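Lab notebook, bench 4. Still working through the backlog of constructs that have no structural model yet. Next entry is a single chain of 201 residues. Request: give me the structure tokens for it.
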Amino acid sequence: MNLALSETSLDPNPIAQLKRWMADAAQSANPEPNAMALATATVDGKPAVRYVLLRGLDERGLRFYTSYFSRKGRQLEANPFAAAALHWPELQRQVLVEGAVHVLSEDESDAYFASRPRGHQLGAWASEQSEPIGSRDVLEERYVHFDQRFAGEEVPRPHSWGGYAIAPERLEFWQGQANRLHDRFEYRRATGGWTIRRLQP
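Model written out:
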């Protein structure tokens, strides 16, 4: 695999470039190539970061799913902007993404929820994400409760759970090189497309 990164090798569309790197990562030894660190902030700018799984990528942006009432969900409601980072150390690559965030349609969230394993669906019902809980026993009891409640039927999507998309305004592709002289390229959204420039490492 060619790990060089140059002006001539970059796709003019950063989404296409990111798809190319995601495909490379899927072929690498990385056990979770779609894991991304997602940074959100409160309305007054206090940041928080955690890992989520990238579950979709197209011209609308990067899609992920979570509880609307989780800490990140509440922060995104108050301050609908985010940054994300994907890192593939086996390939000496990382990608940074920044942009506004919007909630996906109920139909799209329903379709993704229906594709999840049943256990994951029940987990979304059992966990009031980010809220305190007395013990693991309580969490497991809640899981059993919803398993029984939906026995013999499809598990519906909780109204508190769904998808988001980060609409990129800025992306940065980083390729590690010898002597810390890494290759860095920045895409910024512009009228009718994207501008690209090389950054110093």
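Notes after review: The chain has a mean pLDDT of 96. The chain has five helices and nine strands. Flag for follow-up if needed.
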